[in-house]
Amino acid sequence: MRVLVTGGAGYIGSHIVKALLQKGHYPIVLDNLSKGHAEAVLGGELIRGDLGDPGLVQRIMEAGEVEAVIHMAADSLVGESVENPGKYFRNNVGNTLVLLNAMAASGVKNLVFSSTAAVYGEPCTSPIEETHPTCPTNPYGTSKLMVEMMLPWYERAFGLRFISLRYFNAAGADPDGELGEDHRPETHLIPNVLQAALTGRTVEIYGADYPTPDGTCIRDYIHVADLSLAHLLALEALVAGQPSATYNLGNGRGFSVHEVIRTAEEVTGGKIQVRIGPRRPGDPAVLVASAEKISAELGWHPLYPDLHRIIATAWHWQKNHPDGYL
After folding, report:
1. Does a cis peptide bond (omega within 30 degrees of 0) precede residue 127?
2. Rounded Cα gap, residues 271 and 200, in angstroms
3. Is 140 a catalytic residue?
4. What is the pLDDT of residue 193?
5. CATH for 189-219+252-320?
């Protein structure tokens, strides 16, 4: 199958591209490389361009004979979204509108959409089920929820079927060691902690006064390979005719920032220096998923649920690529 992967040169997108290749699909990657890396695209076709260009997207749909789309391209920094909401609504919502219109015009009916647990906001219950109220506390989560609200209308008008995957915290690296996490600047906790272990730098903790047992935020970490598997299962389900759906992607267990740091110290065998900083705007205290729905309906089960294993795969890649993809 010929699959358009927007943002396929990014951290999660590149792992999905590898998974598609392993299953015999042909990925067509559209990425402006503002955050992604051409070296991370292991096969298929890479087109450097912007999703906000309607003419380009339409040409790719038609010339590439695209049969399905996995939509990863988005800005995803919570703090930045609070400071610059227009950027997030333009890139995450406006550019998705360009994609949906191109799909409608080309008759492409199947879409796997990269959503986020940030659509829930501050949770009322834990673990969070898909029926939990959606009340984002930042523009990033709001932008993803706006797309989720658009999709059923495109289904009604054009027959576009979709599966939205609400990620919790993606982490880890390709178990084969070919791919890893390389953001510039890096904002995710685990790679920052591992970089601190490599360099001796101090890692900053954003807030230690949350209403949690040790005062730091609690998150549900899911291995990037397990995320990739979920995208393949979602794609196969849509092609087989399954109705549109929304699923959480998480392990169902949360770990605090302090727990992550302690586990990283076990993996790396060294002490990691920390500094307590202020909270980041828009960060909920606890986000933990219930993934029972995707397990029951798509047969998805995480292969790497253990935090130690998740961090170990990230550490293996980090040690061997201290400068990232450079």
Report:
1. yes
2. 9
3. yes
4. 92
5. 3.90.25.10
